[in-house]
Amino acid sequence: MGKTIIISNRLPVQLQISNGSISAIPSVGGLATGMKSVHSGSDSIWIGWSGLTDEDIPKELAPQIDKALAEHGSSKVNLTSDEVDGFYFGFSNRTIWPLFHYFLEYSEFELESWNVYKAVNQKFADAILEKAEDDDTVWVHDYQLMLVPQMVREKRPNISIGFFLHIPFPSFEIFRTLPWREEVLEGLLGADLIGFHTYDYERHFLSSVRRLLGLEVSFNDIYQDKRIIKVDSFPMGIDYKKFSEAAKEHEKNTTEQQSDLQQRLNNHKRSTPDAKLILSIDRLDYSKGIAKRLNAFEYFLNKYPQYKEKVRLIILAVPSRSNVPQYQLLKKEVDELIGRINGDFSTVSWTPIWYFYRSVPFENLIDLYTSSDIAWLTPLRDGMNLVAKEYVATRTDKTGVLILSEMAGSANEMNESLLVNPNNFEQTADAIYEAINMPKEEQIDRNTELQKRLERYNVERWANDFMSSLKEQKERDAANVSKRLTEHRLSVVLDDFKNAKKKMLFLDYDGTLSGFHADPQKAGPDEELYALLDALNALKDTEVYLVSGRDKETFTKWFLPKKYNMIVEHGVWISQNGEDFRMLENVKNDWMEKIRPVLESFVDRTPGSFIEEKNYSLAWHYRKTDPDFGNLRANELNTVLTSLIANDDLSVLNGNKVMEIKSSNVNKGRATMRVLGEGDYDFVLAIGDDWTDEFMFQELPESTVTIKVGRQNTHAKLFIDDIKYVRNVLKRFTD
Ligand SMILES: O=P(O)(O)OC[C@H]1O[C@H](O[C@H]2O[C@H](CO)[C@@H](O)[C@H](O)[C@H]2O)[C@H](O)[C@@H](O)[C@@H]1O
Ligand SMILES: O=c1ccn([C@@H]2O[C@H](COP(=O)(O)OP(=O)(O)O)[C@@H](O)[C@H]2O)c(=O)[nH]1
């Protein structure tokens, strides 16, 4: 097991140079604060941006910079100020951040900053490649580095790569507006495991992958050519012990040991013992809803005037991304709002809002958390919001009320808090009222549950879960690879084939010999395929059967003149040596009158779907339908049909974007077994791609070489990645 390489834009510390000397200050923001705890306890290296541009660093200080970072287990990626502008202040925070937080109107789509984003992602990938060995694990973090997984994968196909997104993944309707949406998805799919904070973000991502890349998704696996990518949700926790113990220590402080801030907070408590302190802490970011919170506070004071002079709101707004115009505007808006509210409501002995625009050291954070009766955290959108968790962790006596926005990822796990929609002032004002008046016992009950969960699923557990899931995914991949039809395995199969006396090849058509097309009639054979099938049919002592679910008219047109052997409609019809099709099974089709209207009603209600009518079966195709909607309708149809056909001898086959209703005693396994019974074959091969081919894989004799096209679960013994490879393999039989 190799080392772990953590990679993120923000390192655990930010370097500053003043008067020729370097200082390292802790980074603010959930990614850095949370990952810091994970990093400190392991032998990982952390690669990221130091916070200084190349232009900021005098040549003579360069070695000291590396040394200062190495003390924190970190190493840097060098960025020029133009790169920081285009990559960080540009594409990351003027395009992706607003878009992924549903601020579509703030998103700028500039080709120039996209190009810088790509180039800088390449720089980060190169920094990993420089340090990584094949048995290392690379853990890439966040939206600034979404192209890195694929860039590393290209150069190191076997390395283990995890990616975690710390912000929301927006719904498809929002994500689709990004001009470079496919590139971003493909970048992420370079990872083996992609993690999100919540199931909602995960399903939005999967929906975009299905719709924009057309990839097959089964549960939380994405099937991409030769790889399976796992997607899952891992809600990030906090270093619970660090916060709860700091709070316990804090209680022991004598007055002299207390910070200035704590003394100021104490004065407040002393002067107005029955007044409540409400705390709001965020980076100054429009996604955090600070301006809205101020308006809601004003609304509260007007709705419940009895609380004037009885509540005080402390706003800690941490400076963030101040080169981005939207953040500058927000700063102005917040300053003005606070000025106005304080102007309107202040009395001689009371200012309703205390405002701090800065970041504070850890000990002051603990002062604020432990002194506040209520934490009011109502982002408009937030990937997780760790502050909410930190506040609860510091409540050593279990009192305190958390008012949390439904739009924060943490709301999913913090049901015992007062959850509000930040846009609903009425509800928010009532929540503040409820928080002020909540009996102590109820506060304790709620926090007891919250603390139990936060203590159990802490940041260490979160990181371990992610890493074990990544490891499992790699092992699963390796197990899968053990079934791949490698060159070595193929040569064994070819030897057996050559040494056999009487040989049989069963070949499925769609998805095996030919690719899919939205219109099945357009997926006809090409010249290369005819040439291949001619060559196979010319082989000595070898019989070849095309085994398909297709109707006999289509195969008559495509293949009868070639005199290929064919089994169609899953085994209803057979044609041998160019003879007309004859029935292999005695089946009826009078049931179709009952089923057809049901399928027609589904076609009417499912745009893009259509019915294919065969002699003895009906198929409902939904390849052209929106994938989520198609699957939903397919499930619905399955339920309707299952009850409808309960007394008939019919079954429903769920194929690749098609549902087919046919006689139960017809399937490819039974049909191929009948043909096989006509001779004494000592080599049999069956190859197919979908569910209907599993009948062959299961029913043919154990010695059969069964090959699945694709990576989905199968009864076949071997798998092949794609159609192109199928053709190459079959060509080898003719050499
Ligand atoms: O690095 P910055 O541009 O200064 O921004 C600070 C971080 O903000 C974002 O934090 C997110 O991660 C938290 C932990 O998972 C989560 O609780 C929060 O909801 C997110 O907004 C950003 O994702 C990080 O990359 C930044 O470093
Ligand atoms: O002055 C401050 C204020 C906040 N924080 C930390 O910044 C993080 C904020 O993370 P959160 O997930 O709430 O939001 P983000 O800023 O990452 O969007 C939390 O761990 C806080 O403890 C900090 O280090 N110094």
UniProtKB/TrEMBL annotation:
It comes from the Bacteria. Gene3D superfamilies: Glycogen Phosphorylase B, HAD superfamily/HAD-like, Trehalose-6-phosphate phosphatase related protein, domain 2. GO terms for molecular function: alpha,alpha-trehalose-phosphate synthase (UDP-forming) activity; trehalose-phosphatase activity. CDD domains: GT20_TPS (cd03788), HAD_TPP (cd01627). One of its GO terms (cellular component) is cytosol. Transmembrane segments: none annotated. Residues 255-265 have a biased composition (Polar residues). It is an enzyme of class 2 (transferase). Residues 247-269 are annotated as: Disordered. InterPro entries: Glyco_trans_20 (IPR001830), HAD-like_sf (IPR036412), HAD-SF_hydro_IIB (IPR006379), HAD_sf (IPR023214), Trehalose_OtsA (IPR012766), Trehalose_PPase (IPR003337). It catalyses: D-glucose 6-phosphate + UDP-alpha-D-glucose = alpha,alpha-trehalose 6-phosphate + UDP + H(+). Pathway: Glycan biosynthesis; trehalose biosynthesis. Its EC number is 2.4.1.15. Keywords: Glycosyltransferase, Transferase. PANTHER family: BCDNA.GH08860, TREHALOSE-6-PHOSPHATE SYNTHASE. Belongs to the glycosyltransferase 20 family. Homotetramer. This is Alpha,alpha-trehalose-phosphate synthase. It comes from Maribacter luteus. The lineage of its organism: Bacteria, Pseudomonadati, Bacteroidota, Flavobacteriia, Flavobacteriales.
